Amino acid sequence: MSSDGILKTFANGQIVRVKDVPEIALEAFLQEIVDLTGLGWRIASYFGVPEREGVALWCILAGSQERLGVFRSWVEERLPSITSACPEAHLFEREIAEQCGIPVDDHPWFKPVRYQRSFDRTRDAWGRGKDEPILPAVGDFYRISGEEAHEVAVGPVHAGIIEPGHFRFQCHGETVFHLEIALGYQCRGIEQALIGGPQAATMAQMETIAGDTTIGHATAYAMIREGLTGTEPPPQAETVRSVALELERLANHCGDMGALAGDVGFLPTMSFCGRIRGDFLNMTALLCGSRFGRGLVRPGGTYFGCAPSQTAELAKRLEEARKDYDGAVKLMWDSPSVMERLEKTGRVGSDDALALGLVGPAARACGIVRDVRHDHPYGLYRSFHPSVCVEPGGDVLARALVRWKESEVSMEFALDRLGSLPGGACMSASGEMEKEHLAVALVEGWRGEVCHVAITDGGGKFLRYKVKDASFHNWSGLALALRNGRISDFPLCNKSFNLSYCGFDL
Known about the structure:
Strand content: 15-25%
Structural class: alpha+beta
Helix content: 25-40%
Distance between the termini: 37 Å
Largest sheet: 4 strands, antiparallel
Strand order of the largest sheet: 1-5-4-3
Number of helices: 16
């Protein structure tokens, strides 16, 4: 029986010396991941660091009682898959293969994740030649056969102004037997660019990992830098960060509520929420001049403070938006035709959600109490804990209800924090980063858990910087939500998850 004694445990935002991270044999390492996830831990990050003779494997697990755990191993030529025993590892294993050029044996569906070359560009897990072109979504797809079975391909070019992704449906009539999702069209090589950093462009890269999660990713990066430099942000900065993060959540949840209404043809809520989303974005602009929050969060605090006049204006606008938002959403709840379309559509069971490692509203809509602000609090959330909003249904309605309830909580939280905003500085000076240390930061973005991991080298630079957006976990949930449903439900299911293509592609 495994125990968590093999792990080096620490709290969110803390740092660990590399030499203090346990290193164990590969077979034992893989078995520990299986055993520990069976005991309630889950994979927050699992990645490889290519080295001359092989690949160093690092696994970050998130547990209960605000604990994170880390351990590592080493693989030279081939990595045995644990996906059959630990399904949440399936994309992590494929990503390790793609980035490090190490084949994964016995993986149930061994395909590229982003259709890119390995980091060192010399090894390739699929044996592709150096001059062989690698194009997204070109390769094998799962297929069914039989009378009246057919295949539907959607994307990468879509009818709306959205990001590119390819969706391959296996159908019998209207019924979807299987959906496979292929991404990678927007891979910008962010993780490779971060090696040897931080550099002048690093902050801008962090803010654009997923543009609608600017505050979430910028906060995670700031926490990494603050941990490695021993910097404590001022109280005002911590408060402004938390308010900005909740405004980001509000803008996106409000936009999603309107989009869900639009997908079922309910135009009043769609129109109202489209306008109110703009109000929330403008509140962020009031803080820093950018509607998406760019330029606000910086290592050591925030680039902008919040004057009393701004605080009063923000509180006034929030109260007005709360009243309008409430009225717009109630129109939707009071419409029987809308409820009929949302109920029992795109259902994901709690057991499947746990097995896949879903996070954020997608997990909480399956009855799973999982929220970084509650489980691994950071910044101001160590002192103030927003309620965790959970719905058991697992369908589109449950995901909509979670968004609305979280919106109510976020508005109340932001108003409370604005009512007691500390004075003083908004930025603390920081020094050099620690050498040969590991830092981990988890942030509850509006889609769910954002995880950043940094390992520094002997010169205090990034040896490896790993980024994981919530969408990395949740695209598999969308694929499962369509199973045995109608293909005509795809737009509604897709919007109920509203995942990031670029946040996945990096």
